[in-house]
Amino acid sequence: MNEAKIYDLEERTLRFSLAIRSFVKRLPYNLNNQEDGKQLIRSSGSVGANYIEANDSLGERDKLMKIRICRKEAKESRYWLMLLDTNGNADLEIEKDKLAQEAYELMLILGNILKKLTQKAEN
Q: Is 4 helix (H, G, I), strand (E, B) or coil?
């Protein structure tokens, strides 16, 4: 991920997903990385896809559910990243840590959005 933070969440989630795909392509090839990489690609793409759907939601309940899914998928992406084997490659380890940090930041952002939507729904 590049160092400047993107405040348009649709753009930021897209870049996250693209960075994940680029990262997975450079991992050592083995069965674990192949399977865990597939899961990571799915979950990272789901963050942005569900966020876009949340912005076009059919109502507040739908939006709330989509944001919950986004947060869950960001959390899942972080998990799959932790399972990937870089075979000790320092550059890949640094990139993996940055991507895990981005997944964590997305979880926090989406958690805050979820909190505000929940408060709004209760009022």
A: coil
